[in-house]
Amino acid sequence: MGVEEYVELERKASEGVDAATVAPRWPEEQDVASTSSDATPSPQERLMRKILRDASAKVFSQDPQGELVLSTQEKRGSRAAGPQGGGTWLQRFAEDLEEYVEALVLRETEAEFWSKAKALARQELEDKGKPRPPVDSDDDSIDSLDDDKEVLPPSETPRSASTASSGWNERLGPATVCLDACNGDVILDERRLSIKSLSNFCSARTNCCVIAGAWQYEVVLGTAGIQQIGWATPTCPVTNEEGVGDFPNSYAYDGKRVRKWNVSCHPYGQPWMAGDVIGCCLDVDGGEISFYRNGRPLGVAFRGVRRHTPGMAYFPALSLSHGERCALNFGGMPFRYPVSGYRPIQESPKKSLLQVGALVLEVLDVVACSDIVRDSLTTDEYFLMVDSLCAKLVPALLSPYFVDGTLIPFLLERTSGEGGELAAPRCVSLLSENLSDEEISSLTRSVFGRISELCRSSFCAEGAAVTGSRNHPCLRLGIALLENPRIRSTFFASEESFVEPIEGMLSQKQPNSHDLAALLPEVWWEGAEDAGIDEGEMKAACSSLEEAMAAVEASQVRLLLCVLRHSRGTFKALLRAILGKNKGALRNVQPPGLSDNSVLTSLYYALLRLVRPLLAENNEKLAALLPSSAFSEMFLLEEEPGHYSDASRLGGAYSHLRKTVEVAGLAETELEVTVPYQSVLNAGTMASEDSRALYESIFAGYHEEFLRCVEDDGELVALVFDGINWLYHLGLASKCKQASLQLQNQVSAISQLEDAAKRRDQAEPTNPEYHKHLKEACVLFREDVVESVRQCSWFKALLYPTWKQEAMFAACIFQTRLLLQISNHDRLLQFVPESYVETVMDSFHAFRRGHPPVRFLLGHGLEDVVTFLVLHFNDDRIVNPDVRDVMFQTISVLLLHRDFVVAFEENRSAQDSFIESLLSCFDSRFWIPVSNILLRLCKGMGFGQKRTNESTSLIFQQLVQDTCKAKPDLYASFLNRLFTIMNWTATEFTVAMKEIQEREESLVRGLPPTSSDLTQQQRKCSIMFELSVNLLRLLEFVVRELPASFLGDESSSVVNVDRLLETMSFVLQHTTVGPDSVLFERIVVGAQHLTVLEKVSRFAILAPVTGILTNLFVAAQERLEEKKSDQNDFVERVASSRIDVACLEYLAHFVTGEVSSKPDLPSQQRLGNFQDFLSAFKEVQTEREARVEVDDLEIPEKFLDPITYNLMRDPVALPSKVVVDRSTIIRHLQTDQTDPFSRAELTMEMVEPEEALRGEIEEWMSQQKTTK
């Protein structure tokens, strides 16, 4: 067909003439038969022509003008038919197909030529001064070119016409667009379309720019961090600190910070998430730049963009912070979300290539599915025809554009639906059998790369305003294709080729608040009063979300089983590769290339589903599958697996342990880990037929196939359990913490909303401004509640289905018992990775913080967790204090709840060693958690405290008393450290108060210190105050339980009471009356207006002081009754200390006022005891005033202690021949085990009493009294 004929055809079409009357199509059988009696087609030929004709109609159903335009009768008329001259019907079919392809190519070539000719004519008209008509003009001067201008055939098209086609003169650069100029350390893929940043702030731009027109490109986010994506001119001077959008004539959008950038930044757009598709659109002629997120417009970001001036050529450009990655599409593949009116920067492949591919693909699918075709052809004919079709299809299959835009949709449409067995289209089998190794490898790489990207960038569920497809059909397609043996073997040929696609299929895109609003349009919560809120719709939407997520997760399990069926080695390689690349996920500065967190979460749950039945009660399969030395061997491998390299062990660095610990025979250590764990799905709360059916559907079917694939590979089973530990540690733990935080936010937001609503309803109508303010506050609080409820609903669907919680708990108990078994072998525990302990602790907290909290699970296996905590929080084999901190925090948190307290009380290990270990740990590193734990056990027992039974344990209080009596050295050491730390915290508190005063004075004078410095000091002051109060409460508890250690006649008791009274004197002087209390008064007044100081109060610190003094006075009175004496030694000690009577009088007055106003009967009763103490104190003070004070006398020098310069009461001689008082040296030895004068080693057994000197002192004292 020539150009003239084509123009005539187009003219008639534009006039409304039916194309079918003009464009000849594939001939009917009777037409072909009528050309020659000798050319009668065979039945096979007629069948194939019908298939080809039907396929053509289907392919061009959306493009009527594109259906085949070819006069086959004319060409066939010259072709001889029959067995002698025309060849076989297969040859004629191949010729027909070739003619079809030639017709499509010719048709497109002519169309391109005519379009270029029109563009050239418009340009010439414009050059002659005639106004330029629009592109869609019907001007006859363009449609019918000048008579004197020769219309050249397509092969002779002028270059000027070529460059003027379709606006492509509005761009500059090569036809294939890719990233070209890069600043910084980056990694680009082989096509230079994916970029990963390895340095601080990398920038890149393309090899093509635009100078006019409207253009678009897309960016698929691999990570959701700081990236500035947009457009820039070639003069943009990017650096490692500033990038696209930071300079004039550069424009960018950053969804991490939700800003648009052009020198300065302004709020714009929505927060983006990993997997989002960002559309970047530039209208050069209109001077506007806009962005799209997953097809939804974010609005015009920039107007008045400079254009049509020298140097104003705009390149697609982007800048990425460290570790960020993304993939770009400039038109080399179909856009996910094309924007009307904008063109891709890279021209798409020839339309004829795509049409031929689509047609042949349809024909091949019919041939593969049709039994009639198979029955009508011989085997040789069938495979020769298939080979011919595949040969025609190969050029299209090698085009990523065709794979993305035609092949993937075709396969998705023909893959089995949501239910039933997965099956790929039958044409896939024909392709796999007929393509070469190189062709099948290229096709597999393209298809799975695209499936992976679709899974990453699509949600699991659909919403009213969520654009794009769901990820589940893509995941199912991937699984179906892997059922093909050749595709599977090609896909798994190398680790580099299958790990990334598998990760993509394991991902679950995380929605942001805008996405959740589309997924869950209706929001309801307990206590919601809005009439428009429908609880049923909310629950239905949540149920749909959970079902969609469950379907995806089930397919992910099938994906893993598909990998395992291929080979156990491939399965191990996949698991080790994912764990190895994510080993740095918990570092402060994460390395680039980490997997998305959803990959780790999905893989964790998939593995858990495969092995959960092994952890059932009385299941003997685990012992048969898992060698008793499997974990010992794993922990002691000389060449550490990838995820173990650099992993901290409980005993320190692995390299150090290999040098310092005898490892001979350690790898053969046998561990007998039993699992008598009764599933809650089979008993107790969840016992029902439905629960057992749920158990079977979730676990049993997959588990049986898993066992068949594993056979007797114990290494693989051990690796799966090891992987479950690491996946939780590296990925799921952070998800659980996010969920817990969202739940706390929801509770807080609902509380604020209810409070604001209550105040709004109670507000007087006489104050309209205040009422309006409250209404606005309610609106804001309601928005916070709605967002929090949606976030919690997402996490509930992801993390808190019952089967997940139950399976996680079973894994936690298994791992706890494994650790208990390992701990029986002294050396082996040191080689266990720290993650094993941290996972047990963190997962246990996840149950406690669940939504709702998983309390019914705790009756099964809780004893194991308690036993491990009690036995190992003070284990010297655990050298990292951070790990022990985690265990301390776990104990402290658990003891907040009564049911956990009971579990500790009933645990045999806790009864035997818990208190002793706590007292041993009270040192400079762990004194805070230890004091918190001890305070939990005596909560509500102190003066002025509200009585509670939540965590108070009379059993452990008695154990504290028994342990201290049975271990006097341990108790003495604990008490010494308690006094030392108490003095330090109290001193630091006073120092912080002085620093606050100095900062405030500096701010008043306008000196450099800033308000942030003041806030930091206020925070320090609050912390030190709270720690001081806690230690005072602990001291109050010790005094109440063990008063004899302060009231005895022994030197140690004298030292203890003296140190205690020194502490009481310091606290009273700084918090009651006197010059030192002025600062505290200012802090207490300021605390009423500052949230950071809200915990600083006078009663908080004076209440335990009152309790300490009262407890010792009462205990001393009881001792008087036993001795039948009338002199209270404790009161005498207080009177001889530095405690001022004015401080005690203030204390009595203040505490009486505070306690009398509270419903605290025990404390009110003890007020009488304190009043008695104060009266006795005053009496003794009066008596002492009538006596001569030793301090007022001239004491002989030999009677003075050389260290304290006080009168010695019990002199002793040191090995260095120096004489000191016994109490002085006892106190010295609590912190230093050497002679203070010779620095030689010293113990109390080495000192000798100086009885003669003691007699002289007593005689001298007696003489002084007589003189008086």
Automatic annotation (TrEMBL):
Biased composition annotated in UniProt, kind: Polar residues: 32-43, 157-168
- Main EC class the enzyme belongs to: transferase
Does the UniProt entry include the keyword Zinc? Answer: yes
Question: What EC number(s) does this enzyme carry?
Answer: 2.3.2.27
GO MF annotations in UniProt: ubiquitin-ubiquitin ligase activity; zinc ion binding
Which stretches are tagged as biased composition: Basic and acidic residues? Answer: 124-135
Q: What is this protein called?
A: RING-type E3 ubiquitin transferase
Assigned protein family: Belongs to the ubiquitin conjugation factor E4 family.
Reactions catalysed, as given in the entry: S-ubiquitinyl-[E2 ubiquitin-conjugating enzyme]-L-cysteine + [acceptor protein]-L-lysine = [E2 ubiquitin-conjugating enzyme]-L-cysteine + N(6)-ubiquitinyl-[acceptor protein]-L-lysine
- Where is the sequence biased in composition, kind Acidic residues? 136-149
Question: Under the cellular component aspect of Gene Ontology, which terms does the record hold?
Answer: cytoplasm; ubiquitin ligase complex
Keyword Nucleus listed? The answer is no
GO:BP terms for this protein? protein ubiquitination; ubiquitin-dependent protein catabolic process
Please list where the region (Disordered) is annotated.
1-44, 62-87, 124-168
Q: What is its main location?
A: cytoplasm
Q: Cellular location of this protein? A: Cytoplasm
Q: Which InterPro entries match?
A: B30.2/SPRY (IPR001870), B30.2/SPRY_sf (IPR043136), ConA-like_dom_sf (IPR013320), RNF123/RKP/RSPRY1 (IPR045129), SPRY_dom (IPR003877), SPRY_RNF123 (IPR035773), TPR_RNF123/RKP (IPR057987), Ub_conjug_fac_E4_core (IPR019474)
Which pathway does the database say it acts in? Answer: Protein modification; protein ubiquitination
Please list the residue ranges annotated as the U-box domain: 1194-1267
CDD domains according to UniProt: SPRY_RNF123
Q: Which residues form the B30.2/SPRY domain?
A: 155-335
Superkingdom of the source species: Eukaryota
- Give the classification, highest ranks: Eukaryota, Viridiplantae, Chlorophyta, Chloropicophyceae, Chloropicales
Q: What keyword terms does UniProt attach to this protein? A: Cytoplasm, Metal-binding, Transferase, Ubl conjugation pathway, Zinc, Zinc-finger
